[in-house]
Records
---
Amino acid sequence: MLKARQSVRTLKEYHPPLGKREGLRLDFNENTAGCSPRVLERLRRLNGEDLARYPVRDVGEKVVAEHLRVRPDELLLTNGTDEGIHLVSETFLEPGDESLIVVPTFAMFEIYAAATGSRVISIPAGEDFAFPTERVLSTISERTRFIAIANPNNPTGTFAPISDLVRIAQAAPDAAVLVDEAYFHFSGETAAPKWRELPNLFVSRTFSKVYGLAGLRIGVLMGDRELMAMLRRASSPYNLNSVALACLPEALSDEVYVNTYVAETTAGRRELEAELENWGVRFWPSRANFVLMYLGEQSQPFLHAMRQRRILVRDRSADYGCKDCVRVTVGIREHNQRLMTALREVFAELGLRPGAANPAVAGEPGRRQVAR
């Protein structure tokens, strides 16, 4: 009887809680306003002949390379960030190799690495979810071949200093060090193009967040051009569809739209953090377009009450160290105002008082043990 590989049979499954998502979507860190009007106009101009042709990826790569100020042979357009992670794992990992991730973090790091037969070692984040640089360095071994780091991190919003990422790449020259910068626009700091001094360093970005193109599935993976040539061998030449490639230049050219969205989101994040502080709710300062908060026993009532108001937020209790934590996406001013109104109403219903100590929602989330 045909069987899947052992590493696949024992693989964790990722089940996105999609289903019916009716209301204000503050649960998936998407752009709450949608994409640029220029993208929509480009979509309207597509015709049957455009869709009948195979997509030409290198034209889009030249546009993206110019925008990011790197060479075209230093990047590869991917089907979302997920494909970039998958390609790095498939290109550099053998069964029995070791992969390092810091938890909690993006679930697909572990899934794609483990699917190759690699042994995934989970390193717990430090106090207040701080990036544990020294522990990562001490865990690197001669078998380490992949280190994945989300920066800013999801779901915590925390940020690892670029200098620490450089130290890790220097300490593990035989490992592919992937820095996932999905939320780069909200932090303003990047590890690119440090691969010119550290060839084992890769940087990934997505067009799903600030550009509002999650439905088109576009990402970009950057790195040393010789190693990027190896990744191209493992990639399909038609991994991006023609619609995505047609819309990408329009999304990149509308800098006013992007800058306005980032400014409103950043302001909304500060407003949300200030509001949580006023209510005595524990949260972690974020460098992304979301905030993670701890609500203790009130987390499930909070989620239910927000859904009743047609506002979707994300329960992160299943993540390591995040029991009873809720992640809330921030977006444009209009949506943030609606969020703040609902937040105040729900907190009051739950018995919290602004400007007062609320011990039930100011404690420490539980940390589960992680198998090493």
Note: Residues 6-30+256-351 form a domain with the Aspartate Aminotransferase, domain 1 fold (CATH 3.90.1150.10).
---
Amino acid sequence: MPHAMKPEDGIAWVTGASSGIGLAVAIELARRGWRVAATARRADELALIAREQGQGGVAGRIMAFAGDVTDRAGMAALVARIESEAGPIALAFLNAGGFFLDDATVGGDGFRKTFDLNVIGTANCLEPLVSRMRERGRGQIAFNASIAGYGGLPRDPAYCASKSALIVLAESIRTPLARDGVLTQVVCPGFVKTPLTDRNTSNMPFLMGVEAAAKRICDGFAAGGFEIAFPRRMAWLAKAINMLPYPLYFAITGKAAAKR
């Protein structure tokens, strides 16, 4: 199997880096010696990174590269620009994602926007990365999925389905990319306190701080295992529930949705 990348192998690239998990991971990677290319949609969003760098003691180690992951051609151009200006991307954390509320249960604008950002946006970044890493014979790519991707949950069809798609995508490409020296990982967090979860009005068990989550994620990058899932209690509970026969599965998830 390919080995985990180190700072001396190149730079790290983090998408969705203007806030939440992306910002915290960018700062944590910089603290661990990485030079980090941080991407978000707008330059004003990236201004926060400059301020956080000074507070985190990593000034000068995080570089801002604005870009929209839903723009396929734009991502190909951005990857080329990052490597030209900052160096080869050794570690990529494809983190950009979110969810959009929709009046319709499924299939409406919110559903489509969620998939466009979470799944197609990730694929748009993956395409130019893979070709370059394969040429070099090394690299590491991690997708930010979710424990919610382990199975369908009532009230969250688009989010669960999109995160499940990322898990399956990571599983599907792990072996072929490993043959070319590229390590693939999937990050499956539970509830992490971010601007995204601040919009959530439901119960959030095992909620953890974003800095603690970033340390877990970066530890996982260094360890090189396929899945980085936390908190472990929540991850194993979710895995166990998804192994149950469907009548029991729907009964449990239905009760949880009713409590929400």
Note: The CA atoms of residues 53 and 59 lie 5 Å apart.
---
Amino acid sequence: MTTLSLARRPFVEITDLRLRLWPVLLAGALMQGVLWPARELARAIAHRHADFFNGHVWAFVGLAMAFQTLAGLACIAVMRRVLPRAPTYLRWPARGRSLVGLALAIGVGMGVLMLAADYWPQLAAHRAPAADYGRTPGGIAGWLAVMACSGLCEEPIFRGLLVGLLTALVPGRLRVGRVDLPVAGVLVALLFGLAHYESFRVDPLPLAIAQQLYAFAFGLVYVWLMERSRSLLAAVVAHGVGDAVEVGAVVWLQAAWGGH
């Protein structure tokens, strides 16, 4: 009798990797080259019209996001000409593959998780989160609208532009159990976390670290949704819903627990 032993696949496996440092540095520089100038342009406009923007901070955030979106799309247009093999997923998903329903559910879960990570000291003390999203219906609606659009701003930049760039320049796959992602997606998830570095300036260290961790984890989820649907739509939906749910929950808790 002959006994055949089938080798088990390792739980963690990296395949076809060609890791090079310069594309990662290029992606990091490109990230800042898209985000920082757009934010500074919005800040300059807000400074010139301080009477309006001081009372409508959400409008400044929305303006910065709009400039960042335009800059990201412009970079994608250039990348398509210079590096045509880089995927961008700027397409409508095929029928039956949008994953929008799953993205909605994931977004709600993300919003709850962010609420707990960002405000757990206040929640544990049964105090309203100390965040200022306005006291008027118009201000609250403005913040909710801007947060709901956050995926439209950030997903084309991080998943469309940066993951596409690194997929072409740093090929390779990372498999953990049954989850299989491009190494490019993992690298950009790290950059996505680093893009939230300002949390270390304004938040206590444990909260800032928590924000880095969930930003990285969410970045992996977004790229997973993008690859499964072959489109950015599901990632955009999950991202925007998550941010809007957290803001909506904060506003509700402030009303329920006595304001901020």
Note: DSSP finds ten helices and three strands in the chain.
